[in-house]
């Protein structure tokens, strides 16, 4: 296992040193990385990210029933926790992760899941205003073009709907910042951009920030909620 972490982290470091010369290179790197992680992702990261996922899903479950788009649904680990009143569509770049998500839907009889599709979150093939809520959990610090993803989340969400994000953002200081530094090798194995500037996803005229809070037992993650205007 240590060799696996080191191997994947080394590949991501190589890509970072080249300053990501093309979107396609980044997309392939993400796809290859998560193909390798798929069989063990839940066992390794299920607990680590659980508090952030549950905070986002709990917020969504308080909203009126509607159509929900989860970008970066991965293995579908969050799907059983959504209210059955919602109708969920999940997308992910990794076919291997989605295969596990489909097995989870079948075994859990999750009939509130409408579909699971391979898709690029920065180039969604969905109609404008087709969802009541869009959510991206631990996605924005991984994707090669977070501004494109934010634009797509806003585009497919109806006016008055919500765009919900949760992740660890490296603007945190003090002991949270120190912990982020210690987790950097693990983050690199997932392709997280530890130098991510949260300002890259704020300040859009079509999204109004209505909530920003630390979540999880130690407040290590940040939940952001936007209203689509």
Structure summarized in a few sentences:
The chain has 229 residues and is of the alpha/beta class. It is 38% helix and 23% strand. The chain has 8 helices and 7 strands, in the order H-H-H-H-E-E-H-E-E-H-E-H-H-E-E.
Inertia-based shape:
globular
Helix content: 25-40%
What is the CATH architecture term?
3-Layer(aba) Sandwich
Number of domains: 1
Terminal Cα span: 46 Å
SSE diagram, text form:
Layout: H1 2-17, H2 23-37, H3 41-45, H4 50-61, E1 67-71, E2 87-92, H5 95-107, E3 113-118, E4 131-137, H6 146-156, E5 157-167, H7 174-182, H8 184-190, E6 207-215, E7 221-228
Parallel strand pairs: 1-2, 1-4, 2-3, 4-5
Antiparallel strand pairs: 5-7, 6-7
Helix pairs in contact: 1-2, 1-8
Descriptive overview:
- GO terms for molecular function: methyltransferase activity.
- By secondary structure, the chain is α/β, with parallel strands linked by helices.
- Helix content is 38%, strand content 23%.
- It has one domain (2-228): 3-Layer(aba) Sandwich (Rossmann fold).
- It has helices spanning 2-17, 23-37, 41-45, 50-61, 95-107, 146-156, 174-182, 184-190; strands spanning 67-71, 87-92, 113-118, 131-137, 157-167, 207-215, 221-228.
- The longest helix is centred in the N-terminal third of the chain and has 16 residues, at 2-17.
- Residues 11-25 have low confidence and may be disordered.
